[in-house]
Design a protein that fits this description.
Pfam family, one: HTH_31
Protein name: HTH cro/C1-type domain-containing protein
CATH architecture of the largest domain: Orthogonal Bundle
Number of strands: 0
GO molecular function: DNA binding
Oligomer: single chain
Strand content: under 5%
Distance between the termini: 78 Å
Order of helices and strands: HHHHHHHH
InterPro entries: Cro/C1-type_HTH (IPR001387), Lambda_DNA-bd_dom_sf (IPR010982)
CATH class of the largest domain: Mainly Alpha
Number of helices: 8
CATH superfamily of the largest domain: lambda repressor-like DNA-binding domains
Mean pLDDT: 90
Helix content: 55-70%
Radius of gyration: 25 Å
Number of domains: 2
Length: about 140
């Protein structure tokens, strides 16, 4: 199940409406709603998301979550031309192993990728100079 499928199903369930009611409200076939919720269809166009948000009176936050979930649910991935060679190999490895990655491995890969953002968000602490003791003769 894709992020969009999961979120669409959760929003519909939270409103207490069935797929056929939702399809009548937004003007799409019930089979299309079902295909979106089960992940048989890829993410819908922006017009669908906007219509859904308007008809269900979704908050700006919920609308944003739907847009983000649709983007995360995109099954096609385009590698930019300017990336280093190792990035191609990284995506090749991910493509080959996507079905056998454990949840821990996925979490670690995501955390490592987001590490740069996490570090950038950390406050910088000023470097404090270490005070040296003055050389004194020790009397015995």
């Amino acid at each position: 199940m894709s992020p969009f499928s999961h979120l669409l199903q959760a929003i519909r369930a939270s409103r207490g409406i069935c797929q056929s009611e939702l399809s009548d409200l937004i003007g799409y076939e019930q089979t299309y709603i079902s295909s979106l919720e089960t992940g048989r269809k890829g993410p819908p166009p922006q017009a669908f998301i906007d219509r859904l948000a308007k008809v269900l009176n979704l908050s700006a936050d919920e609308h944003g979550q739907l847009v983000e979930a649709a983007d995360a649910s995109n099954r096609k991935f385009i590698i930019e031309k300017e990336v280093p060679l190792d990035v191609y190999w990284l995506f090749s490895d991910l493509r080959k192993h996507q079905l056998d990655l454990s949840p821990f491995q996925v979490r670690m890969i995501r955390e490592f990728i987001l590490l740069k953002e996490t570090l950038a968000a950390q406050p910088e602490y000023p470097v404090q100079k270490i005070r040296r003791r003055k050389n004194r003769e020790v009397h015995m």
